[in-house]
Structure formats: structure tokens, C-alpha cells
Amino acid sequence: MTLAKIFERLVGEGAPVELTAYDGSRAGLLDAELKVHVRSPYAISYLVHSPGALGLARAYVTGHLDTHGDMYTLLREMSRLTDALTTGDRLRLLAAVMDDPLLRAAVSRRLDPPPQEVRTGRTSWFRHTKRRDAKAISHHYDVSNRFYEWVLGPSMAYTCACFPAEDSTLEEAQFHKFDLVAKKLGLRPGMRLLDVGCGWGGMVMHAARHYGVRALGVTLSKQQAEWAQKAIAEAGLSDLAEVRHLDYRDVTEGDFDAVSSIGLTEHIGKANLPSYFSFLYGKLKPGGRLLNHCITRYDNAQPAIRKGGFINRYVFPDGELEGPGYIQSQMNDAGFEIRHQENLREHYARTLAGWCRNLDDHWDEAVAEVGEGTARVWRLYMAGCRLGFERNWIQLHQILGVKLTDDGDAGMPLRPDWGV
């Protein structure tokens, strides 16, 4: 049985995806805009030995599986077509594969994963040491500043934007996100802000430029820190803003008026959340506010970390997601009074759509800069995450807490004053 016939048996005739294979067979909607090409039997080996997203990633990243058309649309259609597959369907697929001598030979050989894959090991008690965290952050963020400039755009903001209107651009939405954080924190001239996991310094520069705040950002990525310091100097903000290549746990200054954590909590780890929020609480003056912005799970029934999954092995080694209620409880138990929280799930889907377009627009330059395998990782990861936010497999929450004064004063307005 040809590969195309196997595909057709699984998803039905006339699927809106054209599949072609190295054996010359084809199935699905001929001349469709969305195409999948199985270039070698080794693609099937990856899929059989690692079913699901990990096997798909290995086949695609190595180039044994190729695609044509918008990656997000392809993943959405393939997800819809395969949602109804049963265990029996998958077993029949395996049986059909084993009937082909060429495929049987390929599947009998377990291939090494591509070099972009990281194996962090199974020993959870070593996770989130300073050394291991630095290595995990470097894997993802020290790819290439030029690559990130192409993907993220001028804002260099690698976190969920907030779109104030349907027709807002990505840059407008990133500005609005930083401004929303600043307003929730109640920033005013002369205040001191600590931004942990500051990335390329977007929040630090926004607070200094638009609010007259003295802002310190810290990041474990050396490339980010170097880029940010250069950008701060070029913007003439060196008297107010600074970014250091530093673990947040090594910040010695205190008495900050506000702390922002935008996209760092995902890297902290469940076991470290109590000490993390206690540390940030200790850095604030009484009356100071913390804005925690992070990706969350839609519930707490699923595992916080999928050690063998695509995201953990290719994108965020040691990353862990918690439900919004759990994070809020940890903030509360660390001493913060919770004053506001909101879910920006749909905004992250829109943000990722913008990043996907940017990558496609700069595909040739990106491949030349970081290599085709790494560029393929990013194309697959961002398109898949966009689908995840749209389907409510993952969410994005901002949670605002305040460190009360000794007499219980929160210094908060009676009603939120930060608008939409």
C-alpha cells in the first residue's frame, strides 16, 4: 500500500491537503494550497518511534518531511483531520507501514534526533539551579539578535502583545502592552522599577522614556543584555535605564516602587514559585506593586512540564506552566494582596500570527543566519503555539499584586485607572 493510500484511509478522500511521497504516490486535494511531502522513509521512522508532535518535529526539522503553504493553516487542518483518529486507526497505520519492505527497514532503524533537540535529563532535583537555568535560557534566547529582529520587529518584544483595536499593528500592540503594565504598576517620574527577565529591555526603556522611571532590567541571556545596553545608549536613556546580564536571584538592590515580571515565570519551576514571589516581595517598598505576566495552563489537571515533548526539547528546556489560580495563590501566600487579573489568550494568538508573518517574510535571511533546521523549529513552534492559544490549550494571564503598608494601605484607586 502506498503512503498516499495510507494517508487517504486515515483522513478520507478529498482532504484539503495534498500529500505527496517519495514513492510517487499522492492523495488529498490535488493542487491544494497546503501540501505535505514525505521526502524519505525516515520521516515515517520518526513518526512511528515518537508519535505525535515530537515525531512530526523531528521529521520536519531534519527535512525528511516538507511542507508548502502557511504552517499555521496546515497544522489547523491536520489537527482537525486527525482529531477523530482512534488507537485502532493508528495501529492499522502501523500495520500498513510494516507491510512495505522499504518502510519496514526504515522503521527498524531508530534515528538520532536532530542537533537542535536538547535533552536535559530526567533528574528533576537539578532543575532550575542557576547554572542549568542559564544554559536553558541561552539555548532559546542566544540564537541570534539579528534573527530576533526579523521575527519580533522593531519593538524586540518577545512576549504577548495587547491589541487595543481590531486593526492595531503588532508594534502598536506591543507599545500598548508595555503601557498597560506601566499603568497597572502606577509608574510615575522618580520611581524605581525592577524588570526581571527583561529580554531586550523593552519594558525598561518604555518606563524610562515615557514615565521618567529609573529602571533596572536583568536577563540570563548575554546577547539580550548586550543588545539592550546598546539600544539604551542610542536612545539617550543611560541615566535612567540599565540592563544587566544577571540572574534575578543575584539582584542586591531593594526598595523598588514596582516590579514587572513579563514572561519569566514560565522558566521558574513550580517548586521555586514560593521563593520566587517571596524574593520579589522582599524587593518592594510597602505599597509597591508586582505585575506578573506569563503563559498559563487552562487547568491544573495536565502536567506542568512535558519532559519528552516538542516544546521542552526544542524551545523551552525545563519550562513549566501552572494554572492562573495556582500562580495567584503563590503570590497571595508570599504576602501580595491580589488586586486584578486578566486573560490575554486571544492577544497572544494575534501576536504569534504577526511573528509567523515576519519569519516567512524573512525566511531566506533567517535560514542563512541560523540554519534551516533552527528556522524550521521556529516556524513549527510559533504556528503550533498560535493554534494552542486559539484552541484554549494554553492561556496568558496578567496578575497584579500589591505589598500593603503596615496599616493595610494598598495605595490603589477605588476602580482600575489603566483603561482597556
Automatic annotation (TrEMBL):
GO biological process, one term: methylation
Entry annotated with the keyword Methyltransferase: yes
Active site as annotated: C385
Organism per entry: Thermomonospora cellulosilytica
EC number: 2.1.1.79
Family (UniProt): Belongs to the CFA/CMAS family.
UniProt keyword list: Lipid metabolism, Methyltransferase, S-adenosyl-L-methionine, Transferase
Name this protein carries in UniProt: Cyclopropane-fatty-acyl-phospholipid synthase
Alphabetical list of InterPro entries matching this protein: CFA/CMAS, CMAS, SAM-dependent_MTases_sf
UniProt-recorded Gene Ontology molecular function terms: cyclopropane-fatty-acyl-phospholipid synthase activity
